[in-house]
């Protein structure tokens, strides 16, 4: 090492000694260049220039004036240029409290006066310095902290300890003061006792709470306070107040350091005060006179009253304002201020809201006092909820009584008045001269005396005077008695009448005076009615007998048996009656029930009792008698025995039981029929499903065999129609049973109805080789009002059955006529005859019962659900009609349907045709041709769309499709008027349903919007669904699955075919 390197090291050593050992500012800055640059260990801790560096060193020496010894374990130097050198050193600063390791990086420049420090950078390898603090501020803070700790150790009963912030607070440290206070010899003994976890030095009952409170407070800050019981080495516990804060331990782990001081004496004093508090009746507490009336202390009475525990109330902030009824709080604050202007004692009444939501009234008395320049209230309150309720109840009673008093003045009272019991005064009196017993201004005592003297029975008068004395009425009111009722015969100037007088006492809430309202009614007619009723009641008994249990004497008060003596010995009369009238098998029970000793025991044990026996009258007819035994007067031991004849009642009960049994049997049979129906439905549904699935598979395998494929498709169609009909029958029956089947009365075109029925049934008959004929009587009018669809359903149901049960070569005939015509309605008769298999006489009574079928193999041979006729019968009943049937097994059946339809006008036009045999041929949908017609199809289901498009294209339609109602609306709006001949609209579609789309189309401002035919195609097939479609502006409603023939026929009706086009003529 050369001389210059040694000179550089010498300057660095001298600089550090001057700063850290001698703490000499002037000498220290003498080793620095004027343009010195300094970087310390803390964040943003820099100085540039000699003045800034001097200020920094001054601050450092002022904050920590104790000097350090400086050691240089490592120092290295090298010249960078002839006049520029660098020095790296590791140094240790140490004083009485700390050993501090630093690294220094120096750049020195040779000037005229020698080497001087141009740049200085200190770095700290440890964690003793915190980010952003002034170098070396950590040591300053640490020294101050240790001074505070020493002060605490000298003055507090307790000490310090710490734990890591982890589960159960693992042990971090404990000072000697704390160890000694808890009775431990050393730290190792303490750690072993708590198993290395600070939480184990706490009372088990406090651990969960302490853990929760500390965790909660550290979530929102770096400090916490908590109180708990701490275990000493001898197993006893002390109460400690723990003040802690979060810190970082030397090893970098988060920890807490806490000061714990013993507050056992304070807690015991508080408990003693609380014990004294709790022995004081009611609620006693102290609170601050602040905005929230903060609670300082309270006895258990307060918390019992409001329903909160101390911990729960602490969660509310220990604020009484939190439980004062919100609307009362401003008034409470105002009254506090007003009363405190007069004196330091206050008395208020207010409502408190308890934990359970109830509201209670409290009467609070408080004394204001000052302590440490702070205002407090010492308070006592009592629960006045019941008193308040009683006051309110008294107010309500008084107000109600006043209202009644006013209302009664215009009623049928014979007299009414108001007596002031407190003032001994009759304040008000309304009556007629005939009933008057006093006048306004009389004393209470005079009124009661005159009222009592009006009784025609002196004893009753004395009883009234005694009960209604003023002092007695006051005493009664104090114990809750406020009503008096007297019913007696009173004398008047013109004779006498039965009187019912009611007295009702209540407190006047304004004056506190006791008021007695009274009302008198003339009940003479009522008493006469009661006497008459008593006479009538006596007629319901064969015998009413009184027995003296002491003497055994019997007295008959009423009897319809002339053989029964008016008086006799009870036991003798019982024996004579038993031998004469009671059936032998009932005699023993009769004697037992009417044994005098047993009668008294039974009455003592269970009170009045009854029993029944069977007897024979003089005509030897069996009669059922009911005896009732009860006391007339228990003290006098007078018993009463009544006997009544319940023969007819028993017979009625037996009849009802028989009827109930029959009804139960019918219900069981109906349930069995329903069960059988469900079993059949399972078979019936599976049968066509099996055919559909099977034929679909065969058709898929026979694509190269058109004949075989066509045969399969035909059978699939047949099975599908059968399955659809079965489902429709089940749905219709469900609506009938729930009472939701309603008629839709509207125009009923006779020709269209019969042609529609014949179209459907003639095709079925022709396919089976059955001759079908329809005969229409000229008396039929061209139009009626009624439910055309339901009537068609009835006729098709019965005609389909006729075709189904008629073999090839047979005949089915429909005959329609009008049999009765009135101004507003007419009776139309439809007779359907067939030459089929007929119905057995045994099954005819059950023909129209739901779920019933003739179980003779007919169902198996011809199929069916057993619901069609039940549905038809219910529909006809709704039409105020009837169905009759005649049948002979093997020869055929005749159904006669008569329905009542509305008449359109008195001059109704006749149909004008006699036969509908050719109707179906003229309206065969398979002959229709719609070539060139354009139709808009709205359907969201891809398969349904494909099926509908193929069906429509097969008849020449040009088809545009839309997947939602919104798309259909856009397609229509984008098209020119009259470019579409019709719109087929599904109801249930996403985005916009068919009903909304149809309504929107009708509202479009274009020439064809109101007339373009819109047809609903939906699975919603009930009447209300049809009504919704029509209400939305649709012209027709087709239920899925779509019948192609019905689809073609409907479109033909709306837009015509190639030869006729009523829709086109609208353009």
TrEMBL record:
Matching InterPro entries: CheY-like_superfamily (IPR011006), HATPase_C_sf (IPR036890), HATPase_dom (IPR003594), His_kinase_dom (IPR005467), HisK_dim/P_dom (IPR003661), HisK_dim/P_sf (IPR036097), NTF2-like_dom_sf (IPR032710), PAC (IPR001610)
PAS domain residues: 269-343
Catalytic activity annotation: ATP + protein L-histidine = ADP + protein N-phospho-L-histidine
Record domain Response regulatory: where: 934-1055
Keywords: Kinase, Phosphoprotein, Transferase, Two-component regulatory system
Family, similarity comment: In the N-terminal section; belongs to the phytochrome family.
Species classification: Bacteria, Bacillati, Bacillota, Erysipelotrichia, Erysipelotrichales
UniProt xrefs under Pfam families: HATPase_c, HisKA, PAS_3, Response_reg, SnoaL_3
Catalytic activity, EC: 2.7.13.3
Annotated ranges, domain Histidine kinase: 680-903
Protein name: Circadian input-output histidine kinase CikA
Modified residues (4-aspartylphosphate): 986
Keyword check for Manganese: no
Organism expressing this protein natively: Holdemania filiformis
């Amino acid at each position: 090492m050369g001389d210059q390197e040694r000179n550089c090291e010498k300057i660095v050593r001298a600089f550090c000694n001057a700063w850290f050992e001698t703490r000499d500012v002037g000498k220290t800055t003498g080793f620095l260049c004027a343009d010195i640059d300094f970087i310390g260990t803390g964040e943003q801790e820099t100085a540039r220039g000699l003045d800034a560096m001097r200020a920094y060193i001054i601050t450092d020496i002022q904050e920590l004036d104790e000097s350090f010894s400086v050691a240089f374990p490592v120092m290295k130097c090298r010249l960078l240029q002839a006049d520029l050198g660098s020095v790296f050193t590791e140094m240790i600063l140490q004083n009485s409290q700390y050993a501090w390791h630093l690294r220094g990086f120096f750049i020195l420049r040779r000037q005229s006066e020698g080497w001087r420090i141009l740049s200085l950078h200190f770095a700290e390898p440890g964690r003793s310095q915190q980010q952003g603090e002034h170098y070396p501020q950590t040591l300053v803070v640490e020294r101050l902290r240790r001074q505070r700790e020493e002060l605490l150790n000298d003055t507090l009963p307790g000490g310090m300890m710490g734990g890591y912030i982890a589960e159960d607070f693992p042990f971090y440290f404990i000072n000697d003061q704390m160890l000694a206070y808890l009775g431990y010899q050393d730290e190792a003994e303490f750690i072993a006792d708590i198993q290395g976890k600070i939480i184990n030095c706490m009372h088990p009952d406090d651990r969960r709470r302490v853990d929760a409170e500390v965790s909660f407070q550290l979530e929102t800050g770096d400090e916490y306070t908590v109180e708990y019981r701490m275990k000493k080495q001898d197993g006893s516990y002390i109460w400690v107040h723990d003040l802690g804060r979060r810190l970082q331990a030397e090893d970098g782990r988060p920890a807490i350091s806490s000061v714990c001081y013993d507050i056992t004496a304070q807690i015991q004093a508080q408990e003693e005060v609380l014990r004294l508090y709790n022995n004081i009746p009611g609620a006693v507490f102290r609170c601050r006179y602040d905005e929230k009336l903060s609670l300082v202390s309270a006895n258990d009475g307060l918390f019992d009253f409001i329903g909160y525990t101390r911990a729960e109330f602490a969660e509310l902030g220990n604020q009484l304002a939190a439980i004062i009824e919100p609307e009362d709080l401003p008034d409470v604050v105002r009254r506090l201020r007003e009363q405190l202007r007069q004196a330091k004692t206050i008395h208020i009444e207010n409502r408190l809201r308890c934990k359970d939501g109830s509201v209670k009234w409290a009467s609070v008395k408080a004394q204001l006092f000052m302590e440490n320049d702070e205002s407090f209230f010492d308070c006592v309150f009592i629960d006045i909820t019941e008193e308040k309720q009683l006051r309110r109840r008294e107010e309500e009673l008084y107000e109600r009584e006043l209202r009644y008093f006013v209302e009664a003045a215009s009623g049928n009272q014979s007299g009414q008045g108001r007596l002031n019991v407190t003032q001994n005064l009759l304040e008000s009196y309304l009556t007629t001269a005939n009933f008057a017993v006093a006048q306004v201004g009389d004393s209470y005592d005079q009124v009661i005396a005159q009222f009592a003297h009006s009784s025609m029975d002196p004893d009753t008068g004395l009883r009234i005077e005694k009960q209604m004395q003023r002092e007695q009425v006051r005493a009664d009111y104090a114990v809750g008695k406020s009503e008096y009722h007297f019913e007696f015969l009173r004398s008047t100037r013109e004779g006498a009448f039965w009187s019912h007088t009611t007295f009702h006492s209540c407190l006047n809430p304004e004056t506190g005076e006791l008021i007695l309202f009274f009302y008198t009614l003339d009940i003479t007619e009522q008493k006469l009615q009661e006497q008459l009723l008593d006479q009538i009641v006596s007629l319901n008994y064969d015998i009413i007998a009184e027995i003296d249990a002491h003497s055994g004497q019997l007295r008959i008060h009423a009897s319809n048996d002339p053989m029964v003596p008016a008086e006799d010995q009870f036991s003798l009369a019982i024996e004579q009656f038993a031998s004469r009238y009671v059936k032998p098998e009932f005699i023993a029970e009769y004697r037992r029930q009417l044994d005098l000793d047993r009668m008294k025991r039974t009455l003592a044990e269970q009170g009045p009792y009854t029993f029944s026996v069977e007897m024979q009258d003089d005509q030897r007819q069996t009669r059922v008698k009911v005896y009732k035994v009860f006391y007339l007067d228990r003290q006098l031991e007078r018993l009463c025995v009544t006997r009544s004849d319940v023969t007819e009642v028993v017979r009625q009960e037996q009849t009802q039981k028989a009827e109930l049994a029959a009804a139960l049997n019918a219900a069981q049979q109906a349930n069995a029929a329903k069960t059988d129906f469900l079993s059949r439905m399972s078979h019936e549904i599976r049968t066509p499903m099996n055919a559909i699935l099977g034929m679909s598979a065969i058709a898929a395998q026979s694509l190269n065999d058109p004949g075989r494929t066509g045969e399969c498709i035909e059978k699939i169609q047949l099975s599908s129609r059968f399955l659809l009909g079965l489902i429709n029958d089940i749905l219709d029956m469900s609506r009938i049973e729930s009472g939701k089947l309603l008629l839709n009365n509207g125009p009923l075109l006779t020709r269209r109805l019969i042609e529609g029925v014949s179209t459907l049934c003639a095709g079925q008959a022709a396919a089976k080789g059955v001759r079908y004929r329809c005969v229409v009587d000229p008396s039929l009018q061209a139009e009626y009002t009624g439910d055309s669809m339901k009537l068609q359903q009835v006729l098709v149901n019965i005609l389909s059955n006729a075709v189904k049960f008629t073999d090839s070569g047979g005949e089915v005939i429909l005959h329609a006529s009008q049999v009765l015509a009135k101004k507003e309605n007419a009776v139309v008769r439809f007779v359907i005859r067939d030459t089929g298999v007929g119905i057995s006489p045994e099954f005819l009574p059950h023909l129209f019962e739901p779920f019933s079928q003739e179980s003779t193999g007919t169902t198996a041979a011809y199929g069916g659900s057993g619901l069609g006729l039940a549905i038809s019968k219910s529909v006809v009943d709704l039409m105020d009609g009837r169905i009759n049937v005649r049948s002979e097994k093997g020869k055929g059946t005749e159904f006669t349907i008569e329905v009542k339809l509305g008449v359109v006008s008195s001059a109704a036009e006749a149909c004008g045709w006699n036969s509908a045999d050719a109707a179906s041929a003229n309206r065969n949908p398979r002959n229709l041709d719609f070539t060139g017609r354009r139709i808009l199809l709205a359907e969201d289901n891809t398969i349904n769309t494909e099926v509908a498009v193929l069906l429509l294209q097969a008849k020449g339609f040009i088809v545009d499709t839309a997947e939602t109602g919104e798309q259909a609306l856009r397609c229509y709006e984008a098209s020119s008027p009259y470019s579409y001949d019709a719109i087929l609209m599904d109801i249930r579609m996403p985005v916009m349903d068919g009903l909304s789309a149809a309504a929107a189309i009708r509202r479009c401002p274009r020439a064809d919007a109101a007339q373009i035919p819109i047809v609903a195609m939906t699975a919603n097939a009930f009447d209300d669904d049809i009504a919704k479609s029509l209400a939305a502006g649709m012209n027709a409603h087709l239920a899925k699955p779509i019948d192609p023939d019905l689809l073609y026929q409907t479109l033909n009706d709306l837009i015509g075919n190639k030869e006729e086009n009523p829709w086109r003529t609208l353009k």
